[in-house]
Amino acid sequence: MKITHEIKENTIILTLDGELDASSSVMLDEELSDPEIMEYSRILVDCKNLHYISSAGLGVFISHLQRFEDAHIKLIFYNMQDKVRNVFEILGLDLLMTIVSDYEEARSIANE
Amino acid sequence: MLYKTNAKSLLVISAVVSWALLLANVLLSAESMREQGTAKIALPFVSNLLIIVFIVAVFLFQRMSAEALKGIDFIGYLWNLFSKAAVAAYLSVALFLGYRVMTNYADTESVLLLHLVYQINFGLLVIFLAKAFYIWRQLLLYHKNRFLQIAWDWFELLLGATLLLTLFNFHYTSFIFLPLLSLMGFYILFLCTNLKWVAYLTFNNKSRSLVLLGAILLSCYIFVRFFRGMSTSHDLVIDYTQVGFLLLAMMFVGFYTLAAFLVSLFSLPTSSVFEQKSEDLLNFQRLSQSIQQGQSEAQVYDMLFESTIKASDASAAWFELVRNGEPQVTQLLNVNSDQIKRIRHLLLAYNIHNIDYINNNLNRNPGFRDLMLPWKSLIILPIKSKKHLAGVLYLLKDIEQGFDRETVNVLRTFTSQTILTIENLRLVAESLQTERYKEELKIATQVQESLIPKNFPVDSWFEISTHAVAAKEVGGDFYDFLQLSESRIAIIIGDVSGKGISAAFHMAQMKGIFHGLMQQDMPPSEFMKQANSALSRCLERTSFITSALYIIDYSMKGFMFARAGHCHTLYYNAMMDDVFYFQTDGLGLGIIRDKSYANHIREMYYDYNPSDVMVIYTDGIVEARNAKNEEYGEDRLKYMLEQTYHLEAEDIKYAIINDLQDFTGPDNLYDDQTLLVIKFKPVEPNK
Q: Which of A12, B516, B661, B673 has CB 3.0 to 4.6 Å from B620, enough for a Cys bridge?
């Protein structure tokens, strides 16, 4: 698992590369727990190279969901692979989180 | 042991008796000589025999008393030799002086008294020689090899053989014996080169041994001087300088003592180096032992700090522990934090992180000169492995060129040994942690196993077949049932996120919630809402539970269900001959922890027909992966049901599980796998 972040104005783009399982979810949790992240109003998560997400990985997103919502930070996933998206859908997370097809769409939703 | 004690007392008795007889014989001869003034000695062979018996008895006694070397307390041996035998020489001097004073005072030459003194001195000499001989043997044979042992055994034998000369009253200066004796002399010189024990003496021990050896040498000199002086006296009836054995034994004792004295004296300046080396070795040993003794990292650093200061003789030092990339001074010696700050500031400018740095003349460096430090040499030793930097050691000396190459090598060995020790300590701690974790998983597995019902009620309305395996690392699948009334049964399946004890714990909670709430017989959607509310208070923030609850009503021939983030239900409808998934919405439990959860749950009612099949499972089934990292998937599961729906529930289950295992291959279990196959029967219930 590799997590890289890129900053564009008030947007932070996290790129997830690999498999988000119990061990790598700790890295993600550290990344999302960073107080600096609250300075941005949008968090875009590029899931193009995210091949697998375990319940622990989902748990990290879930645990931060409320915090971002309270701070009016938009959390948008894009480029999600079908099987990963399926996991989000089965769990019902697609109705709670914004999952869009590509970067352009993520960008336009973020600017709304 | 008894035999040895007996032999010893026998030897003592024979020594005393032979000496007394010898004395009597000598006194008798002296008396007769004084009266007749002719014969030098009355019975030479008798006295020679007595001399030999006495010498042999004393030497054998000492030989038996000599104990094997214990440890390296060589000073103890020297002291033993001096206190028990060498003082005899001083005693003999006192005795002789006493005799002289007495004869001078009384102005009479007492031949008998002279012989008495002479005989006593002879006894003391033999005791001294025997004691010294066998103590030197112990030391000489320290670190022996086979050759040396053989050489020594021959020496003892040859020396013993020289007693024959005395027995047959041959004079050793005559015939061919003199060259042979001089050859023995060379043999003795060769033996005297074995002084390995001296190397083990520390500086202090050497100084003490010099005093003792000097005293022993003096004893040798006194004896030699006394007997040589007396040999010219015409009054004596017997002259012990003519006993070749005594001469050779004295040669050996004297030469060996002299050699030991000289070697100790000349190795005195180098002994501190050996002391340092052995101290370093001991410290290495202590460092590597600290793992077995279960010492902490802090103790290892303490040891490093002390050892390196001793090894380098540094006048000031400090150690910085690197924690989270920040250096933190943990050990200090003769240096204050202000000086540390200034030196570190300067070093930062030189940009020499993580490499060994030696500056042997700080005064010539303008940066250091400005700091006005009292030191002239500095060495920086990072304690680092390939991956990370554990700390940095700074050593300072107040002389120029204070860190020579040899010292630096030793210091580097210390640091690499330290990092090895630290890493090993961590590995040990990690393996302990893993062990604990394994134990925890074992408990979790047991809990999980105990929470899953072993038997479903046998019913004529439907047949049910279950399959559940727990993966080693992830655990949290569960299912259960509750008979609500005669014609209604509730079946729940779920998956707790997380692993180990916490998953098993939440599973138990979920089971409690299921049994508690379903006593009140509520519809599945209501159950989910209330379960979500209950779990909101006890589930940790990153955890959630997916679940699906089915209430089957035989009398109505229908079932009600709600899905909370759990896998879709696979269904075969016999009437339509169709296999499909129930695509319903439903959010996992514990994701939203307020009342709005109610908006995310849907309930569904479905009428079933006889021969319909319902397949309930957890994500461990559809997300099972093969070697190529492909997922088993919903499609393949659906295909399997299409092929097997006509079979009995048990056989459908086996077909699916077999196919799944074919797909993943053996020993490829990532996640728990739970599968329930329910087949509704075409027969009427037996009322």
A: B673
d(CA B365, CA B373) in angstroms, rounded, equals 12
Question: Out of B586, B629, B631, whose CB is closest to A92?
Answer: B586
Contact check, Cβ <8 Å, B587/A96: yes
Bridge partners of B679?
B463, B613
Phi–psi pair at B45, nearest 5 degrees: -70, -35
Pair of tokens at residue B73: 């307390």
Touching check for A93 and chain B: CB below 8 Å? Answer: yes
Interface test with A, best of B591, B625, B632, B635 (most A CBs within 10 A): B591
Tell me the ipTM for this assembly. 0.90
**SS3 of B207, please?**
helix
> Residue B404: how many CB atoms within 10 A of its CB?
11
| pLDDT at residue B687, as a whole number | 43
pLDDT in tens, B109-155: 677 888 888 889 999 999 999 999 999 998 888 888 899 999 999 99
pLDDT at B685 over 50: no
- Distance, CA of B349 to CA of B669 (rounded, Å): 55
Q: Could you tell me if A90 lies within 8 Å of chain B, comparing CB atoms?
A: yes
Q: Across the interface, do A90 and B544 touch by the CB < 8 Å criterion?
A: no
**Would the CB atoms of A92 and B498 count as touching at under 8 Å?**
no
* Partner residue opposite B542 with nearest CB, options A59, A83, A96: A59
Out of B544, B566, B619, name the one closest to residue A62 (CB): B544
Cα distance between residue A96 and residue B596, in whole Å: 11
What pLDDT score does B102 carry? 84
Nearest CB neighbour to B567, from listed A62, A90, A92: A90
Confidence of residue B454 (pLDDT cuts 50, 70, 90): confident
Within 8 A by CB and 6+ apart from B160, the residues are B245
A83 and chain B: CB distance < 8 Å anywhere?
yes
Does position B370 have pLDDT exceeding 90, yes or no? no
- Rounded to 10°, the helix B203-231/B111-140 angle is 150
**B77-90: pLDDT as tens digits:** 888 888 888 888 88
Cβ atoms of B674 and B618 closer than 8 Å: yes
CA–CA separation, B256 and A110 (whole Å):
98
- The string of pLDDT tens digits covering residues B637-661 is 999 999 999 999 999 999 999 999 9
- In chain B, which residues have their Cβ closer than 8 Å to the Cβ of A95? 585, 587, 600
Burial of B196 (0-12, 13-18, 19+ CB in 10 A): middle
Rg of chain A over Cα atoms, rounded to whole angstroms, equals: 13
Tell me the C-alpha distance between B58 and B16, whole Å: 9
For residue B593, list chain A residues with Cβ-Cβ distance below 8 A.
66
User: For the residues A81-88, what does the mean pLDDT come to?
Assistant: 90
Band (B36; pLDDT cuts 50, 70, 90) = low
At residue B179, the 3 state secondary structure works out as helix
Contact B587 A60 (CB under 8 A): no
Query: How many Cα atoms within 13 Å fall on the side-chain side of residue B183?
Result: 9
Least confident of A36-50, B15-29, B164-178, B192-206: B164-178
Q: Is the pLDDT of residue B563 over 50?
A: yes
| pLDDT at position B638 | 94
Sheet holding B326-333, edge to edge: B326-333, B316-323, B389-397, B377-384, B357-359
Size of interface A-B (CB pairs under 8 A): 65
Strand partners, B380: B357, B394
Measure the CA–CA gap between B677 and B687, rounded to whole angstroms: 25
Cβ distance of A91 and B588 shorter than 8 Å: yes
Mean pLDDT, rounded, of chain B: 86
Contact A91 B565 (CB under 8 A): yes
